[in-house]
Known about the structure:
The complex is a heterodimer. By secondary structure, chain A is an alpha/beta fold. Chain A has one domain (2-135): 2-Layer Sandwich (Beta Polymerase, domain 2), CATH 3.30.460. Chain A has helices spanning 2-7, 32-43, 103-113, 131-135; strands at residues 14-18, 22-26, 48-58, 63-72, 78-86, 91-93, 116-118. Chain B folds into two domains: 6-46 and 356-366 and 368-395, no CATH class; 53-345, Cytochrome-c3 Hydrogenase, chain B (Orthogonal Bundle), CATH 1.10.645.10. Helix content of chain B is 44%, strand content 14%. A three-stranded antiparallel beta sheet of chain B has the order 2-3-4, with no helix packed on it. In chain B, strands 7-8-9 form a three-stranded antiparallel beta sheet. The radius of gyration of chain B is 24 Å and the shape is globular. Residues 372-378 and 380-389 of chain B have low confidence and may be disordered. Classes of the chains: A alpha/beta, B alpha+beta. The interface between A and B is large, with 42 and 48 residues.
Amino acid sequence: xxxxxxxxxxxxxxxxxxxxxxxxxxxxxxxxxxxxxxxxxxxxxxxxxxxxxxxxxxxxxxxxxxxxxxxxxxxxxxxxxxxxxxxxxxxxxxxxxxxxxxxxxxxxxxxxxxxxxxxxxxxxxxxxxxxxxxxxxxxxxxxxxxx
Amino acid sequence: xxxxxxxxxxxxxxxxxxxxxxxxxxxxxxxxxxxxxxxxxxxxxxxxxxxxxxxxxxxxxxxxxxxxxxxxxxxxxxxxxxxxxxxxxxxxxxxxxxxxxxxxxxxxxxxxxxxxxxxxxxxxxxxxxxxxxxxxxxxxxxxxxxxxxxxxxxxxxxxxxxxxxxxxxxxxxxxxxxxxxxxxxxxxxxxxxxxxxxxxxxxxxxxxxxxxxxxxxxxxxxxxxxxxxxxxxxxxxxxxxxxxxxxxxxxxxxxxxxxxxxxxxxxxxxxxxxxxxxxxxxxxxxxxxxxxxxxxxxxxxxxxxxxxxxxxxxxxxxxxxxxxxxxxxxxxxxxxxxxxxxxxxxxxxxxxxxxxxxxxxxxxxxxxxxxxxxxxxxxxxxxxxxxxxxxxxxxx
Lengths: 147, 396
């Protein structure tokens, strides 16, 4: 655990943990891709995978939070890279070229929460959301979507 | 003579498979592009079964959500409720008794047995071996009975609650469960023999849908799909519930093809039967398995938890966040099929159209799990333009 926080020392704004004992490293959104690149270089192609991408809407903070849950292989440790995006225009670099496995997570987060992953050509509406919701231009997982 | 007309010849034929199709047992659409019989590109189109369960959980209380998340998937409903309940317990700092933990593992392993049996049966059916399908389903029914004895329900268990399980196991039922497992094991070995020796199954499965270990981790594939390619990913290694105490082996094979994935499932079935037997022999008696529901907390602390479970199809993750109110602020469900189906479009390329349902089935898809593509292609979709003159020359 300490090895990864050491590795990302220059990127990290703060570190803490999500229960049960998952290390969270907060990094600025501009540096997410670089940080993931550093991690991938350290662990190699077969040493780590993107397990989940979780987007959460915080209307009172006017921000959207994005968490990348990474699992190392074969020791099965979970790390979280956390970043905050502006709610008005949530944009972040896609990590598809580093981890093709992020495709499903990025497509879903775009469709349901409206986060734009720059550089991912596959993101589109109606990936999961039904036509009547998507055609109104609302994102169902936003707290004020009315869905 | 000047040539001013150009015929555009499509390089590939588009074959939509699904969302309702005799060869698919789940509502998903695979848009297959083929050159002759060879698949050159596959798009996975989703959205036919999206029910908005994550949003629904934000509108219901922590306790009611246990029943909602159970209904994400009919086959693996207990693992869904287990991982959700564990995440909630972590937020609330509640620890279930040892007996309850053992019973949870027993229920989840019974679920793994019947889930692996049904997908092997479906694979047999898709390959045209309907008799084998019926035999496996007959024996799977014994496991459904075992699940009914344990949880009270054949399919939707609704077995878990915060702090423990809903029903304890008495001595009579314990013996009945043991008898079922003892009868089941030789039947499973029989099916393993069929899968190992039947020439038709061998020909349809071997070398079909090969995934290299590097592709497994890069595309985030999990469960038997990963372990069939030699990648030892198994969330049970975390030792949640009683997995730290119940001995088991993780089955990993290096075949990398559809056959390898099915064999991983068969051998995991055997492994799960041994685990269930171990639990029935060594069920701890300390502490109540069923907590007093009236004494469960009604106030929830602020906090967040991320729990993982090894579902029959692979790693299933739940993120639960509480802001101190009665309802969770956010519940994020990531099911194994979500990764395995959407990210595996690359693995169909180069195979024939008839292999597409076989490869899809070897990933054990569960669309109701997943939705709650676009994927594309690896070969260049070049357009070829021929002049009339060239065309006529070629036709000769």
